Amino acid sequence: xxxxxxxxxxxxxxxxxxxxxxxxxxxxxxxxxxxxxxxxxxxxxxxxxxxxxxxxxxxxxxxxxxxxxxxxxxxxxxxxxxxxxxxxxxxxxxxxxxxxxxxxxxxxxxxxxxxxxxxxxxxxxxxxxxxxxxxxxxxxxxxxxxxxxxxxxxxxxxxxxxxxxxxxxxxxxxxxxxxxxxxxxxxxxxxxxxxxxxxxxxxxxxxxxxxxxxxxxxxxxxxxxxxxxxxxxxxxxxxxxxxxxxxxxxxxxxxxxxxxxxxxxxxxxxxxxxxxxxxxxxxxxxxxxxxxxxxxxxxxxxxxxxxxxxxxxxxxxxxxxxxxxxxxxxxxxxxxxxxxxxxxxxxxxxxxxxxxxxxxxxxxxxxxxxxxxxxxxxxxxxxxxxxxxxxxxxxxxxxxxxxxxxxxxxxxxxxxxxxxxxxxxxxxxxxxxxxxxxxxxxxxxxxxxxxxxxxxxxxxxxxxxxxxxxxxxxxxxxxxxxxxxxxxxxxxxxxxxxxxxxxxxxxxxxxxxxxxxxxxxxxxxxxxxxxxxxxxxxxxxxxxxxxxxxxxxxxxxxxxxxxxxxxxxxxxxxxxxx
Length: 578
Description:
The chain is α/β, with parallel strands linked by helices. It has 16 helices and 22 strands.
């Protein structure tokens, strides 16, 4: 696609938008403090929440011009510029650093040179287990201060689910010393494996089931390397998602210790690979999985198996940005309702091209992220535009974060470095990955049963003749897989509501089928592309509902909070007391 260069002044647009909510400003008429945009802003949009405006913004953000919105890349950061300029055009004021729309997030990109790196598992008979990057293994390091790292033959130990959870009387490491060892563990947690509602949270994944936690805990235990065994059902995604997500450059925040507190090597192997490895040591992986379901489990050495590794990597010090805009309330301007969505995706990777442009399954090098998360970014702007036409009593903050795909890093950075104190944020709403499947009778609340925000949403949906439904796959751990969790950890009540599954046309079966197809064929793949044939009628209705939830909070003096007994309730109380 031909790159379109348009000069706009974000500051000037913000000033114009604040005075005129008709949003028909011609972007190429402003020249002061120029910022180059690779794609034009919409010529005209409406304060009403409508499919047409959502489509314009989704299509733009998912365009090949932004090359998959990779954080720290020229094209990716250009999409953040576009979002900031669009915030200004619709009347938001800068809420970032130094009176800009941006919060700088210092990051590193680390790319493993797979030709000169290896992770090797050696069987007891001395032969190496065949491991091919992306095919049956992916590996990387979080160490940011060395281009070359290596470790020689280490003992290998199976540590079950790799969890240390005192509140559940659970310790998969059982107090042993794992310094200088390689640990191999299962994905998800024991509650999923047993389905026992009394074990952890039953089928609902806890944070102990997240891959992020497992690598963090392995490092705390002193492991040299940490490996997760992939299985599609407990992971809730296939191996291709793993290989796409953890190949190529990996992003992280700049760490004060250079990542020294992490294991030297982290990675995943396929289930088939793990079975062969365990069998070589005379062990039955399936039998060990059964043992790992009990809190009496103790770590099991793979006798005679050794692991070694070498990583040769490039390290690029880069900067990305969160984009932050606000609308100032007229009664209590120091109290805020928050909306969040991440703008980033996986960027551009080396992939074999298949098909032809325009075909349904054309695979190229660009991971456009149309659903994930051009939809949420478009929703954020659509709601902001609607609220800009309202006279708000409280203020509204719109936070478009970076580095979500790298482990919720942009929101985590913001949570640690808030531009508005968390105690002044009344509540927040997160939007991430909406499927264009048409209208539904319901909306799904991820992490259902968490806060009083659900009561507000329930009342709003009654007016739409719709209902709330709990997440049908709590075992997938979606509550821990999007940016709201970074704010929740700081006590801010957060609502993460997604499109429903009970389609007006086809019912629950049709909704589930559409979600399954997206997960299998498009999620974290180049095929997550925008189509003019998308049915955005249901998405429009969902965004209208989330707008109403935020508006009701903004136009009241209520402070909705976590339900009694929620894991974040005590943090919130302490935050407000301080």
